[in-house]
Amino acid sequence: MRRADRLFQITQYLQGGRLVTARQLAERLRVSERTVYRDVQDLMLSGVPIEGEAGVGYRLRAGFHLPPLMFSPEEMEALVTGARLVKAWGGNALAEAAEEALVKIEHALPPKLKDKFGDTRLFAPGFHAYARHTPLLDRLRGAINERRVLTLGYAREDGQLSERSVRPLGLFFWGSVWTLAAWCELRNDFRNFRIDRIHDLQELERRFEETREISLEAMLACYRARAG
């Protein structure tokens, strides 16, 4: 999360009127308490009326609210269309998150923009044949975020079945299919696996750390070098 986004999130969390501790903020934002203390101090120095102190908790002074969100018609259309695409192709968890995000955005808009919210006629129908594979995305995203090694039962292009232990690095959408970018421990190299060819998925207790040689950035750099 960018620091600017984190500062905005802190301000949002403190708007409820009750004390929020640095530990609670750190858990929500997935940062250290020291980072929260520093961010809160910077917000106070910039004029945000935060009350409280370290070790007790923080809250925004009564009557303070962030200004309403302002979007151009094109920006609103982009947000709605993006959320619809996520709902159709992004898995159940992201679909719910996209719907909640739209509700929050609509709630924060000034009245004159609320009337136009959702008017876009760009749609992403969710009844495509690939939809039955998208639930795998939730599990794969979780493994990527947790740096958890996976065992895949995979059908190759020639129909042969294989089993691979992989370190998942990222997910890519190609318009009609998703692929998992990973480090294959069998081949000792980067590989891409089509989600619709994964017939078994096991999440191992074993975790990994990305390194300079084995990471998403290293994989992209490798592919760019091969292409160039």
Question: Would you write up a description of this structure?
Answer:
- The chain is an alpha+beta fold and 228 residues long.
- The protein folds into three domains: 3-60, Arc Repressor Mutant, subunit A (Orthogonal Bundle); 73-127, no CATH class; 132-227, SH3 type barrels, CATH 2.30.30.
- Helices cover 41% and strands 23% of the residues.
- It has helices at 3-13, 22-29, 33-45, 73-89, 92-108, 111-114, 135-146, 216-227; strands at 50-53, 57-60, 148-155, 161-173, 178-184, 189-194, 198-207.
- The protein has a five-stranded antiparallel sheet. A two-stranded antiparallel ribbon has the order 1-2.
- α1 packs across α3.
- The longest helix is centred in the middle third of the chain and has 17 residues, at 73-89.
- The radius of gyration is 22 Å and the shape is globular.
- The mean pLDDT is 88.
Q: Would you list the SSEs in sequence order as H and E? A: HHHEEHHHHEEEEEH
Integer count of domains? 3
The value of Rg in angstroms is 22 Å
pLDDT averaged residue by residue: 88
Helix share bin: 40-55%
Instruction: Report the CATH topology name of the largest domain.
Output: SH3 type barrels
| Strand line-up across the major sheet | 6-5-4-3-7
End-to-end separation: 32 Å
* CATH architecture type of the largest domain: Roll
Number of strands: 7
Task: From the structure above, extract its key features.
3 domains, 228 residues, Arc Repressor Mutant, subunit A, two-stranded antiparallel sheet, globular, 8 helices
